[in-house]
Amino acid sequence: MSGPAVQSRDPRSDAHRERLARAALTRVFEPGDERGGRWLREMGPVELMRRLTGGDGPGRLLEGASTTRLAGCRLRASDVDPRRDLADVTAIGGRFVCPGDREWPTQLDDLGDARPIGLWVRGAPDLRLWALRSVAVVGARACTPYGAHMAASLGAGLAERGWVVVSGAAFGVDAAAHRGALAAGGATVAVLACGVDVAYPRGHTELIGRIAEQGLIIGELAPSSHPTRSRFVMRNRVIAALTRGTVVVEAEYRSGSLVTARNAQRLGRHAMGVPGPATSGLSSGVHELLRGEGTLVTDAAEVAELVGSIGDLAPVRRGPVLPRDRLDAVTARVLDALPRSGAMTVPDVARGAGVGADEASGRLYELHSMGFAEREGAGWRLAAQPPAAADDGLP
């Protein structure tokens, strides 16, 4: 996949001024602020920043803004330095992607006024192209070994099928999904609730570094910004909107992962869940999702079948094919008529199977050739060692 397009840096261009204004606004408004998003849509980033930093009277500054809200926004706006932020992200090999850029994932526009003001991106691949074929894998931080195994298996399986695995780089399921994709040599994206230059949680410094080298780190917050509880919650809407579907692996009733899945449903994306033990509290939220409009999945093939194109079909699931499954109905009845111990004459077998003696005799010799029956004097009995089960793919 080709890399992102070069962004305009001509300080005289409208595009550059808009980029600076949007970069500044990522420090003014919290992620998902719909009121701020409406102001941005109505007047554009440059005019919005002018009103926040200029000397306009509060009465005409921003429609619907309370005095307290206005004071908070202006206080933040007075201290921003977008040129420094853009330089800082460039220094770590990153960039700032805005709506309208070639690299902007247009599916984020489905969020309406809650869409990101822009995205800070770290890593070489093209975000728009990667997002076109991406799946979110999310779940409990304090997951069980089963949850970690399933997340890693899904991450690896999806990566091997050419899907980009998106998650939040948190402990537990998120980390397992990222590691599964990385181990398979595949593509993965971490959506952070902090600056893309901040390793959070700190215990995942190495993992986040690997993702930055092999995949992408993205976030709505300017460099050096720290995470908060509300920022984690709002981060989930980006994960849901960015991807074709969200898979939840282990989640309690109150879970940010379920928030992501429900956001996905509201946006018309697929919401999927991996079932677990009915006695496990960590599976209770997933099961609640599955009782609603969520779809049960157990591996990467089933996920790809749901979110992929026509032809991305999961293999047909079936148990082993037993040799007696190949028998026609009459031969099967003759076999069922044979005793478990001792021997039985042909007329007795015929009566038990409800067929004529000649028919029974012919079927008995057929069963003998297949290893199901043995002859004992004038009688017939079941073979001591019947044919073993086989899984040869036959229906």
Describe the structure.
The protein is an alpha/beta fold. It folds into 3 domains: 14-80; 106-307, Rossmann fold (3-Layer(aba) Sandwich); 323-382, Winged helix-like DNA-binding domain superfamily/Winged helix DNA-binding domain (Arc Repressor Mutant, subunit A). It has 16 helices and 11 strands. It has helices spanning 14-28, 34-53, 58-61, 67-77, 82-91, 127-131, 145-160, 173-183, 205-214, 229-242, 256-266, 281-291, 300-307, 329-337, 346-353, 357-370; strands at 94-97, 119-122, 134-139, 164-167, 188-192, 216-219, 245-249, 270-274, 295-296, 373-376, 379-382. The strands form 2 sheets. Strands 1-2-6-5-4-3-7-8-9 form a 9-stranded mixed sheet, sandwiched between helices. A two-stranded antiparallel sheet has the order 10-11. The longest helix has 20 residues, at 34-53. The model is unreliable at 390-395 (pLDDT under 50).
Q: Layout of helices and strands, plus pairs?
A:
Layout: H1 14-28, H2 34-53, H3 58-61, H4 67-77, H5 82-91, E1 94-97, E2 119-122, H6 127-131, E3 134-139, H7 145-160, E4 164-167, H8 173-183, E5 188-192, H9 205-214, E6 216-219, H10 229-242, E7 245-249, H11 256-266, E8 270-274, H12 281-291, E9 295-296, H13 300-307, H14 329-337, H15 346-353, H16 357-370, E10 373-376, E11 379-382
Parallel strand pairs: 3-4, 3-7, 4-5, 5-6, 7-8, 8-9
Antiparallel strand pairs: 1-2, 2-6, 10-11
Helix pairs in contact: 1-2, 1-4, 1-5, 7-8, 7-13, 8-9, 10-11, 14-15, 14-16, 15-16
